[in-house]
Amino acid sequence: MNAPNHPAELAALPPQREVPHTLLAALQNRFGAACSTALVVREQHGRDESPFTHVPPPAAVVFADSTADVADAIRLAAAHRVPVIPFGVGSSLEGHLLAVQGGISLDVGRMNRVLSVNAEDLTVTVQPGVTRKAVNEAVKSEGLFFPIDPGADASIGGMAATRASGTNAVRYGTMRENVLALEVVTAQGEVIRTGTRAKKSSAGYDLTRLMVGSEGTLGVMTEITLKLYPLPEAVSAATCSFPSIEAAVRTTIQIIQMGIPIARCELIDAGTVRMVNAHSKLGLREEPMLLMEFHGSPAGVQEQAELVQEIAGEFGGQAFEWATTPEERTRLWTARHNAYFAAIQSKPGCRAISTDTCVPISRLADCLLDSVAEADASGLPYFLVGHVGDGNFHFGYLIDPDSAEERATAEALNHQLVARALALQGTCTGEHGVGLHKMGFLVDETGEGAVAMMRAIKQALDPHNILNPGKIFSDRTA
Amino acid sequence: MNAPNHPAELAALPPQREVPHTLLAALQNRFGAACSTALVVREQHGRDESPFTHVPPPAAVVFADSTADVADAIRLAAAHRVPVIPFGVGSSLEGHLLAVQGGISLDVGRMNRVLSVNAEDLTVTVQPGVTRKAVNEAVKSEGLFFPIDPGADASIGGMAATRASGTNAVRYGTMRENVLALEVVTAQGEVIRTGTRAKKSSAGYDLTRLMVGSEGTLGVMTEITLKLYPLPEAVSAATCSFPSIEAAVRTTIQIIQMGIPIARCELIDAGTVRMVNAHSKLGLREEPMLLMEFHGSPAGVQEQAELVQEIAGEFGGQAFEWATTPEERTRLWTARHNAYFAAIQSKPGCRAISTDTCVPISRLADCLLDSVAEADASGLPYFLVGHVGDGNFHFGYLIDPDSAEERATAEALNHQLVARALALQGTCTGEHGVGLHKMGFLVDETGEGAVAMMRAIKQALDPHNILNPGKIFSDRTA
Lengths: 478, 478
Prior knowledge:
Two copies of one chain form a homodimer. The first copy, chain A, folds into four domains: 108 residues, Uridine Diphospho-n-acetylenolpyruvylglucosamine Reductase, domain 2 (2-Layer Sandwich), CATH 3.30.43.10; 117 residues, 2-Layer Sandwich (Uridine Diphospho-n-acetylenolpyruvylglucosamine Reductase, domain 3), CATH 3.30.465; 114 residues, 2-Layer Sandwich (Alpha-Beta Plaits); 91 residues, Alpha-Beta Plaits. The N terminus of chain A is likely disordered. The longest helix of chain A has 23 residues. The two termini of chain A are 24 Å apart. The first copy, chain A, has 478 residues and is of the alpha+beta class. The first copy, chain A, has a seven-stranded antiparallel beta sheet with strand order 15-12-14-13-17-18-16, with helices on both faces. Chain A has a five-stranded antiparallel beta sheet with strand order 5-6-10-8-9. A four-stranded mixed beta sheet of chain A has the order 1-2-4-3. The interface between A and B is large, with 90 and 90 residues.
């Protein structure tokens, strides 16, 4: 791993592409007030939750309300070879939304309609601006739910574009497994459909899964058909405190290896529990903790819970606390989902550099424990949460964005962690995506040959490199 | 849908590409006896289980024993722009293996080593020539199994290339969900890796799933990492007879909509039960039948079985017969897996034209019942089996391959069925792939725009169109 591939490269921005006045005039003519060049609007679309703060905002923001709007915006931009950066709710952690080469932001947040709920088939079709919570609101009266839950109330479009997951993925999979079909606007402004509502298919190249995780670089999704699941008959959540992170991790490994269909299995370290307690006014024990949830029939849930208690007991797990009412469960999981914001608030003005490694479950202890030791030794404050049932965890190193030294320390920790995860046959990113921040790690992980194949696909589908350029892999055509 | 897109086009072969003697000499120099031009070997590699019998065999067969062999064979062929057609065990139903433009067959059957079993992570890495039964033999001592089970004992490479599934997909998913990582030789003869052993990843374009289902047209898989599952603590299989296909289908729909985690849910119609009885010397009731299997803890299996019996009873299901010992279960499922061969033997000399539609579960009765009526009215003998828990079923119309009339009748039935499935938001192929037979249906299903995107990807990754050309979409460059 040599420096040019790695985050340090971001210090130097690539050349900005010109956004001609003729394009801005054409966009304003077509979109009227739904095309804004106001600085405050542009700035709001020129940042995300990533630690990158030095990229100028896009030249304009187009608020699309329909597939036709998306297609027209892309066609106009394509005619001028100007970058188009899709925008959902702005919760990316990896700089996906930043206009690193200039261009326009295409905000699909107004495309927030749930188009059809097919309860009998356990599917729903939505526009990309619908958030995960809004999907769940729309389907709960049918006794259904959509399980994918990244920390933020992200848009479904953004979640699909980054192949997001969250706390339920250990049982229900990620966006990879839960997107059935798409409507996509191509770089040429053409509207295509991928997939059907059938549960499985062998009909040609899997364009659906090519688009899922392509981070807005191959097309802009305008309709997304998702799988739904019946709300489980019984749900039980529990927290369990452990004498060490290692004990919590070894409990997790055994749960997974035994094939227990646990629905959620989350680790929070002691320091992060402290932050969450302060932020959410909770009184959780400030020790390493697993948060777990069991879904099934009442008997099935009880059976799972008993097995897990037995395993946890072998590793010194204690103080099981059960939450069986929806209110108790919601409070518990809200705390978990707020860990990120709790941490950010613990150090005013800070930004988090988030890691996102994911390793085979047998390697989880090796990967995690060494990285905890390194983080502790660094002196940098951090939070640590993990979808440990999947082998995925996040350190968030809390840095002063103006401190080059803190940034360098955090990047060095991240670098060490990724190198360790790759050596253990894991990935640099379990769910956040590559964006700007992991382009070098992607090369380390998959090799130049696979990245060359990605570039060839990008070149074939977007020859003028207008869709979210400069993300995932370095941009040799700019 | 107009005729040029559809199976009738196969009557006219595309131009054969020349296989120069210099290439044959180079292959024989490199591979010695592992490169054969014997007619019997070429003919064995120039056919499959599809109804196409008029395509000349490949000019040579190379038996690869390693990734280096695959890479060298492709590089030599690429230098002469000669087609390369990967070959596993030859069980394709859709003409995937046929040398429609000439070229060489690349047999990976000798690459049949299980490279590593990672029991703790529930993964196994195999070479592409390993068959599904061989994978299960290799991992059962670890208490694990690999659930994907197409009818034939297919090679894992072939299964990945066609995005295969089978009877367990209703619970465990298809090859789409169960391939974690690949080693692939590209059209340039370069070796790349896609994916890792981590359970999930957001690291760039999903090349793994692009390769899965690409039918040998984008690369040749040389290593495949699969997910495994713990052998369930308890397994129970049952058959249940129904007064009508409709009753069996409505039972299935309700099982799925209630979210019962049934492991297998297969339909066999009365006529096919009759064929299976004759072939496998069984005494099954010759009525429409569901074959079901339940996996889980003893209590969980019992709970599922009770729920399903209750549902079946509402639709007139009767004569539940349970198979709880491994021997009884194996006999039951062997019968199901042999349905295809039982049908073929029922009409000596026949070939089967297999349908493979898959529809959303709510549309299953509509799709299936009208198609049964049409098949009955045609007078053509057929078998009917279905992975109905997934909305996927297969008619096999039994035709005399020399009878143009029977072929035309079967194709007309297939055409009507596919049109119906597409109108019901389904797919023309749930698990067999497009191959030669469904190229027109693919256009009908996904539209010219999506097929154009597939062509663009093919062109980018294989600009000289040497990897299994003329499959999936019509070949405009030949």
